[in-house]
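Q: Okay, next protein. This is Alkylhydroperoxidase from Streptomyces caatingaensis. I've checked the sequence twice, so it should be correct. Can you predict the 3D structure?
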Amino acid sequence: MGTRFNLFANETAVKFAKRFANAGLVIHQSALPRAVQELVALRASQINGCGWCVDIHVKEAAAAGESALRIGLVAAWRESTVFTEAERAALALAEEGTRLADAHEGVSDATWARVREHYDDDQVAALVSLVALVNAANRLAVIVHQRGGSYEPGMFEAALG
């Protein structure tokens, strides 16, 4: 099945996308490490089955200098040795914050405590906002069947010009 609706060709959708991108810019410019941002966005997108967003975050992570090994192991981060304790805490938050319906408590106290061990208040604000934002982006792309494979780093920003 092809894309149902082109979000980049509709005036209302483009207006929304520009505001959405501005929210993302706040996170991008935060003190939360860029590697953590891309790993978290990638993991949430994998869970949500968003091919478009997986494509974006794999390529953006690589463009930011992330190794192919680490990018490839994000889906199995618990069974990998290549992530720091801080990254593991952020990935756990991403998973639990994405799978809210799968657990009665949402994000566990244990995960929250690990996040607080590694990130200051501004980084926590950025991390929580990122999990919410990437989940919203996943839903936008999945609803309209935006397919992965054609993204080039920086393309989203150029489209919103």
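A: Here is a summary of the prediction. The chain is about 65% helix and 0% strand. The first helix runs from residue 11 to 28.
Q: Noted. On to the next one.
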